[in-house]
Amino acid sequence: MLDSVTDKITNIKPEIPKNTKASILYINDLHGQNIRMERLYNVVNQFDTFESSEKTDKLKFASGDIMLGEDARHVKVGDRFLNISGFMANVLGNHECDMPTDQFVPLIKDRRYKLLGLNMTPGKENPMRSIIQKSYIQEINGNKYGIIGLVPPDLAIHVKLQEHLKDLNIETDYENTIPQVQEEIDKFKVQGINKIIILSHSGYRNDLKLAKALDGVDIILGAHTHTLLDGIEKNKNLFYSKSGEPIIITQAGRDGLNFGVLNVEFDENGIITKAQNNLGKTDNYGRNLLARNEFEKILGKPEVVGEIKFAEKYPKDAYGQENPHCDFICDALRHELNADIGVMNSANIRGQFEKGSIDTRDLSIISPFANKVVLIKASEAEIVDAIKGRVAASMKSNSHRPGIVQVSGLKYTFTKSGELKSMKFVDKNGQENAIDINNPRKDKFYTLAADDYCVSSEDMGLGLKHRLDEALEKYDFDKDVIIARYIKHLNRPVEIKGDNRITVIDN
């Protein structure tokens, strides 16, 4: 992959003797997938040891959401991965803000990488102020690169608790951020630095705005929207600045499934004259024993809880259709908490079940957020309205985000345009009882098992915070503990299969 034929950008200047070759390994949105971090460590080793025929600057950057959840152990693992892999910088993503800054900052005190965020200005008393940087200069082989980082402007809607953002002072209007980035680029130019890279956790659409508005930037290593940008294609991830200089945008999807290598050649003016961009599949690499041992020092040794006999393929549209992997988790919630209904939001799963033995570490990756499992009481009307809302909101977007509600103990049907058409309650004997979705009962109640985020979130879950305040039970663990118990209680090889409990029909 690293030595494949270089794609040439059109309208390029002829090569001159003072050109600079650079190879950039980039990752984004790993979401705490520490088993894939073990595989990526082998990718890093291959990248580091690859010898090109000509002198090449090797750079390694992360564009945020490498860490995930409120569990301090997962933050430490993400930090350890970035350190042992030699990543030079990471930008602060929304999931790096899953916990308050006074808890997060001490966990990464030994970091050897830069943490960036130009559009964030923490208050004087906020510990983030001492570690966050707008930009920095990366020097390698005598060549200098200006590196800028951008945190998500919509950070507020992607964190569990707003108090986690207290005194971080994030610029939410991207139109105000763009001139600030240009100002930073201009500062680099004054210093004679003409190779500029932005680590952006702002999303693909905002990266397009940057590319079209800025002058002097060369590469935008993107994240946040989980977009796959393989190769180089004009008007997709290749653009030209006002002065005619090429700008390349990259992004490698989600959950560490892919990594990217961008090979570029700059002329003496810092203009890209050649470029080649490829994505690689992380799961094609084995798990690295050294990395595994490092992580187990933090996580502890996993316990094998059972065996997966068969696992249906993870759906491509994980946000807008039934997900068999979520079915199993919802079934576990319903069974282990003896609830009428089990639910979870589609985006809350970050891994998948795979054939073979399964241990507690696998489960912590499948459900890594460190939310708290709860048992609440909710009316039929509240449940119907919540599912209606999530379906309508999700089917409006091309990505079907924020995602429909995944269920156990319910069946429902909706149209591709986002209209809920029918719903049934399925009791523990398998008896199906129709629910009048046009006139759901306010006086009929069900016990409902979920996690606290799914119950309370207006954007991603049920929006029933008032029910959380009066929960029947609150537990101090996430769904991974429930899944482990469920698998043990089943005491047999498990099959992960969909059963059409959620059906999407034409309009």
How would you characterize the overall build of this protein?
This protein is α/β, with parallel strands linked by helices and 507 residues long. The protein folds into 2 domains: 20-284, Purple Acid Phosphatase, chain A, domain 2 (4-Layer Sandwich); 302-505, Alpha-Beta Complex (5'-nucleotidase,  domain 2). 26% of the residues lie in helices and 26% in strands. The protein contains 12 helices and 25 strands. It has helices at residues 34-49, 72-85, 101-107, 174-190, 204-213, 289-299, 324-336, 360-366, 380-395, 452-456, 465-469, 479-490; strands at 20-27, 57-62, 89-91, 114-116, 132-133, 135-140, 143-150, 196-200, 219-221, 238-240, 246-250, 258-266, 272-281, 304-311, 341-345, 356-359, 373-379, 405-408, 410-415, 420-426, 432-435, 445-451, 473-474, 494-496, 502-505. The strands form 5 sheets. It has a 7-stranded mixed β-sheet, covered by helices on one side. α2 runs antiparallel to α6 (289-299). The longest helix has 17 residues, at 174-190.
